[in-house]
Every structure is written in structure tokens, then in C-alpha cells.
Amino acid sequence: MDSLDLLDRVSGRPAPAMVGHMLVGQYIFLQGRRSVEAGHRPARPGEYYVARREHSNEAESDQVTMEAVLAIGRTVEKLTGRQAHLADLVDVSPLVDGTAAKKTLNRQPLEEAIEEHLPFLRAVCFRPVSRLRPVNHLLPVPRARRITPQTVTRLAAHSEDWAALRPDGVRPDRVLSPEREVNLDLYENRVAAHLVDQLWRYLTVRMAQIRDISGMFSDIERYIDDVNGRPWQQSSLRLWNLLAELVDQEDWNARAILRLKELEQLRSAVSALRRSPVWNGVNRRAVLGTSLRITNLLIGEDRFRHVAELWDQWMATRTRSSSADDEFRRSQDWCRGFESYVAVLLLRALDEVGGQAADESVLARGGGPVNYSYGGSEVQLRWGGDGVLVIERDETVVLRVVPLPHPLTASRRREATLAELAMLNTQSPTEPTLVLYPSGSEERQELPLAVRLQAFEAPGTPAPDKDDAPLWKIPVSPLEIDSVTRLARGLRFVLEQPRLSGYPYLVSVGGGVDTAFVSKIPWMLMGPTGIAVTRVPTNHELVTARAMVLAQRRDTARFLQRGTNAAAVEQLWEGIERAVEQTIALTRCPRCGAESAAPDRALQARVDGHFRCSCSQCGGIWEGRRCRTCRRTYPILESTARVSAENTDGDYLDRQFASDLLAAPCWTRARVFICPWCAVCGNAEGDTNCARCIQGGVKASGKEKADTRY
Fold it and tell me: What pLDDT, on a 0 to 100 scale, did the predictor assign at position 433?
């Protein structure tokens, strides 16, 4: 296969030469390139590249996640197939719905089969069928009952077994004596022991699924309570209304607790069989295959017949077609389903941060852009033919959202996770790129802190020692409502950062314009690169400033060899008006979107060259700061949430801040923040006990970048 046949979706460029393990869904077949064999048919352009299973070590998401994602994918496919409006897609829930939750919480056929056949499996494990087999033991002579030719042969070859040497022979001390012992390592007993292990694993997975469902509804209740504290946002959040109806249907947590108790009792009963004679007496590593061999015991003995029936029930839960075409089709469905799930997630996140669709457009893969109104500006959302969702503003890419259906943290091992994270950087993207991949909170918490921070970093909240590549990764799951808020948190930063990081806004001065008047205007300041607007002027101050600027016009004077500067003066005043409008726009709240009725009072110019604003409606406070390491400016949004040095990874930010965050706070001081550009904490030099600063260290001054703004 030629690597030029593939597109690297993370970087947006043709793939380089690739060997060995590849991430599921990272590469897609290009249009116009020669096809490659996939299974038993040529792959079509636009399909995902998936390595054949016999050459792939790819992991899979859990069953509940996969079923939920595929269900969302089918719903989105139906809507886009009939050209449904954007509002119909926004109404699709990004979580496991009530029907799927009930299906997961209900008793499964295998669980009923375990209860029915467990007494017979217990009888086999504790009263097994056995056979006698001959074995030779080296015993002291008084304990030996029989001797064989093998006894004489060994005694002649091993002088250490002699007690004494006599003229007519030897007097033995130990001899090899044949005996018979009980043998439990029969095929039928191996089946029973293997079944015990598999049933224990099945019940453990089922309990994890129930806990995930229970945790999802607990998070939903927390999300509802959080939105209840944001009355300005309740009427606009469709997800809040949808989840409120879902929670009101029944007491999900009580139902989950009851099922967990039942499964725990069942698993305890199965776990007791792991101390039985059969479980300890057979070779449990022996390969048994998927279908049982027909033996007299399995069809003629009542206990073993029930064991065989339970084996068939267990196999029914895991057997599936394994042909190359079926595997390829299943992988394509999973990749497309996850892509649709991320599209729904992104629409919900845009709704969370206050984005509003400008018209009844249609969002479809490979279709045209959808116009959104956000904070008085227009942005476009486009779903590309490569499955990447792109947000643009003024024909500039604000963020590329790449759905990657590979569970990067599923191995729960440090080395494997770091290796797969490194594969994302095979080619670094040139545009801001956010990779969304399936992952649950339990598997992330088993990783070391340094790996966990790299696997969960959003725009505005980078991991320690992050490189300069504009690439971030966040985990998502239909079992976590926080998937919406963590994506919304990243969107809020990339959408608000250009507006909030430009203060003070500069106006260039054309040639031939005298700038001495600037010292007489209190809300202007002359800098080395132009005039800076430092605060919002009143109407009277604006009229006075206009008169002073226009007074700088002069006519053409040939005897002085000078021309008119009227055009430069007009351009200067237009720039000042534009800078004033941008300064007023700083007072629009990045949390609730409210515009200040008195912007001259809401904006406070600070002596360090930055600003501080507050919102009279939601109480939000935001300001601009400058990093002492890289000297770049970044916005922060203050919060009353407390910080904890023991738990400040991405999941902690979800619980404490939801989407109400721009730059991440310091782990030990809530009013100090981490620079989103160089990833250095403002308290890095002052706190030597911070776990994050120990992980990342303080970056060298060689990474500093000069800020050309005033």
C-alpha cells in the first residue's frame, strides 16, 4: 500500500510511510487515489483505514459505550439522509438514552442462566470426577511398597541415593516407588474451571456497566443542580430540559443499586468456586476452543450436562462473525458512528457556550457550512468529507475537531498509552486541532498523573511541558455528561481568547500626523507601535477626542513642500473608533453573554497594562494577564470553586468548574493561573511542593516569545 493513498486526519495532510500498529480512525482513504484491498473487496475513497485484525493490537471500547455511540450514529444518519434541519440534530441526546439505560439495568439472559445452573456448577467444582494415574515418587526405603525395573535403573545411576556400599551390592537409602494418585485435570473439569473464570469476568464487567450508568445519572443530577445555579442560561440550554425529563422518569440510582446488589451476590457465589478442588487442580491455561467436544460426561451426567448448557449460554454472549468483510464493515460502522456522536456533542457544546444557529441550515458530512452567531460575531461550522468538524471565523480556522474512535487509554498502562499518544504527533498539525477519543473516567484514573494530564488537555488547559504543536486531546463518552462541558470549556477558550487577549487595542498612525494631542486625552496612551485605547470613553470624551484628531488635518502647501494629510487623519480616527468598539466589546460577559449597560464602569484599566471586568447579571469576573515566562497575554475567568492540590486533572476541572473556565487555575492558589501558551503556572517558582510543577518543571527562558503589543 502506498502511504499517499491515505490522509492523516489529525494533521490534515497525506500520511507518511507507516509500519506496524496504527490508531483506529486516524487515517482515511483519499479521493482519486488507487484503492487498497480491505477484506475481500477494494476500499472506497472516504472509508476509514482499519488494519486487519490478525495484524492489529487495537483495543475496543466497552459494550455499553459502543452500543450507545452506534445508536446515536444511526439516528444522525437518518436525519442527515432526509436533510433534516440543524435543530433536529441538536435535539439528539449525546448520552445513553432511557431505553438503553433500562436495557443495561435489566437482568440479562446469561445472568438468569447462571442462577439456574450455578448449583450444578458448584457440585462439579467441589465433587469432581477424577481418575487414578500412575506416578513414581522418590521415597525412603521403609515407605516404598513396590519396586520396578525403573527403580533399579535409577538406583544404579544415582549414588546419592545409596546408604552404604557392600561387597555384594549397595544398601539403598531412597528408591523410586510407583504409586497412584487422583487426577482432576480432565477435559470436563477444565471446562468447568474455565467457565468459572469467564463468568467471574462477565459479572465484573456487568457491575462496571451498572456503575457507569449509575454514575451517569449522578453526574446528570449534578449538572442539573449546576445549571439551576445559572438562571440566565436555563431557558437557552436544550440539554438541561432534556435531562430534566429523563431524570424525572424514575429513580435510576435506586434501580442501579438494586441491580448492583444482585450482581454482587451472584459474583460472590461464583468467586467461591475459585477456591474449589477443580479450579486449583486443573490446567486453566489449556486452550479449549469455542465449541465443546461431545463426551459421555457432558451429555450423560446430569451435573455436567448443566455445565455444558451454561457454557453455550456464555458463548452466545460473545460469539460473532469473524470474516474479513464483517470485521471491516463493523469497524467502518464504529468509526462513522463515533464521528456522528462527536458532531452531536459539538452541537451541544456550542449551545452550552451560547452559540445560536443563524438560520435553519443542514449539517451533513461533506456538506456546506452552518452559520452560527456567537457574541455578536459570525462563525461557521463545517463537517468535512474526512469526518473532521471545523469551526471558522473570518475565513480563519478557529478549531479543528477530529473524532478519533480509538480508545487511547483503554490499556490502562503507562507505556502503551504514551506510545499511542505519540502516534498522534506523527505529523504535527498547523491549525488548532482538538482530538476527541472514547474513554471512561475509571480507566483514566488508573494511569499515572503525568500520563493522565497528557491524555486530557483542552485548549486553555495544557499539560506540563506541552510542545508548541496546536494539538490537544480530550476523552469523551456517552456515559459522561461532563463530555459536553469539557468540550464547551475548550470552545469557550478558542472563541473568546482573541477578543480578550488583544487589550489594549492599538491604532497605527500614518505619516504626516502629529500625535502630540494624545497626551491631552486621558483614555489614550502613546506607545512605540501606535496609539493605545486604555479604557471606554464617555460620549463627551469621544466628541472631544474627535475634534482634537480632526484638528490635525492640514491642506496642501507647495511652498512648504507638503501635501494634505486628510486621508491619514480620517484613517486614524476610524482606527480609534474601531479600537473603542473593541474595548467596549471586552465588557461582554464570556460566561452568560450579557452586554454591559454601562461599559465605562464595567471595565477597569489596571496599572500593569491589562484590564478587569465584571458582569452585573451573573457576577462573572474576567481579566487579561501576562505570563512571566513567555510574556504572552491570556484571559482568565475567576470562579468561587476551591482548588485541591491532590486532584486537579481534567476530571476535577469538569466537576468543579464545568464550562465556566478559560485558563486553568493553579493547583494550590485559586487566583493564580496556568499560562495556556507555555503551560507554566504563575506560581511555579513560588511553590516547590506543587505536584504539577514537579511533573513539568519551570520552562527555560529560551522558550520566551516577545509580545509586540503595547
Answer: 97
